[in-house]
């Protein structure tokens, strides 16, 4: 099923995503421009002379060693000029590129929002700080090319699921203003997202509420306790943390719901605008929850939150 038919299906179904297979995309290229096929993939760090992998810290030359963005631009107006970097989950060992990637991008597109699905590097080959470096580069890239994508440089959010939620929360609590003297215009951009959306996120890496697999694949088998604390996002919320929307379920048997609660509590204490929606029943990893009648309305709550903040049109 092509993109246009999928998008039409999303709208007819009330903008809930359809289940389908992996999107086809061209082989990653250095850059892409508006008008490309939806889901066209771009390298975050273009290859250098002779095709050598240009990604910092690369340990190989395969696709898994080359982080990318898949670009989805809406065919309907984007009056708020909003763009969202989407970080699929997968425990830092694989990525749910359909349910928590393309389906999310198409939902955003149907609401007139540009989307950029991040394929970041994973354990056990890659550990921190590679993953957050990929996320920072994604945000900087979208910000530097904002005008070309029809978005505003100050309306760039990040939406993460599960371990992708941890990466998103980390991006929202560990960022910088960019390197003004860099020869690379992308590296001059701020890596701070303007807002966060966290869906059943991993937040803490400390026991007893940590998702052990995410911690293992991000930090290795015996991480330094100081690093575990440093990457437990609930400990690093400040008044400058971006406004945040959270969704989770009490029944989640994979990532304890208190991960979301503790991050929300930290946001409230720091007086950061935040909204938390908890449902009693529902498994981990539901995405937009098209097969869960009691949950699928959560995306409507997100749309209302985004509209209230001027991040989505009516």
Automatic annotation (TrEMBL):
Keywords: Hydrolase, Signal. Residues 70-267 form the BD-FAE-like domain. Residues 1-25 form the signal peptide. Pfam families: BD-FAE. InterPro entries: AB_hydrolase_fold (IPR029058), BD-FAE-like_dom (IPR049492), GDXG_lipolytic_enzyme (IPR050300). The keyword Signal applies. One of its GO terms (molecular function) is hydrolase activity. PANTHER family: AB HYDROLASE SUPERFAMILY PROTEIN C4A8.06C, PEPTIDASE S9 PROLYL OLIGOPEPTIDASE CATALYTIC DOMAIN-CONTAINING PROTEIN. This is Acetyl esterase/lipase. The lineage of its organism: Bacteria, Pseudomonadati, Acidobacteriota, Terriglobia, Terriglobales.
């Amino acid at each position: 099923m092509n993109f246009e038919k999928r998008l039409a299906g999303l709208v007819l179904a009330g903008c809930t995503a359809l289940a389908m297979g992996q999107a086809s995309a061209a082989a990653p290229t250095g850059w892409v421009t508006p008008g490309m096929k939806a889901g066209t993939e771009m390298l975050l760090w273009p290859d250098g002379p002779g095709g050598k992998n240009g990604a910092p810290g690369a340990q190989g030359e395969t696709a898994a060693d080359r982080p990318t963005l898949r670009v989805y631009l809406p065919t309907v107006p984007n009056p708020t000029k909003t763009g969202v970097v989407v970080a699929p989950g997968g425990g830092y060992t694989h990525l749910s590129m359909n349910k928590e990637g393309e389906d999310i991008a198409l939902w955003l597109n149907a609401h007139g929002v540009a989307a950029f699905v991040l394929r970041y590097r994973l354990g056990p080959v890659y550990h921190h700080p590679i993953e957050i470096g990929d996320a920072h580069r994604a945000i900087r890239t979208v910000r530097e090319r904002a005008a070309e994508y029809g978005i505003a440089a100050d309306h760039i959010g990040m939406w993460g699921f599960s371990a992708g939620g941890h990466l998103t929360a980390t991006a929202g609590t560990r960022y910088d203003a960019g390197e003004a003297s860099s020869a690379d215009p992308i590296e001059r951009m701020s890596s701070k997202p303007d807002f966060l959306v966290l869906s059943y996120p991993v937040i803490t890496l400390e026991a007893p509420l940590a998702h052990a697999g995410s911690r293992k694949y991000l930090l290795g088998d015996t991480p330094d306790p100081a690093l575990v604390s440093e990457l437990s996002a609930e400990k690093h919320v400040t008044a400058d943390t971006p406004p945040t929307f959270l969704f989770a379920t009490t029944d989640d048997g994979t990532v304890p719901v208190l991960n979301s609660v503790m991050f929300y509590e930290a946001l409230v204490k720091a007086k950061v605008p935040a909204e938390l929606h908890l449902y009693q029943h529902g498994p981990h990893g539901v995405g937009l929850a098209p097969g869960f009648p009691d949950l699928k309305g959560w995306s409507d709550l997100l749309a209302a939150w985004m509209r209230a903040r001027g991040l989505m049109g009516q």
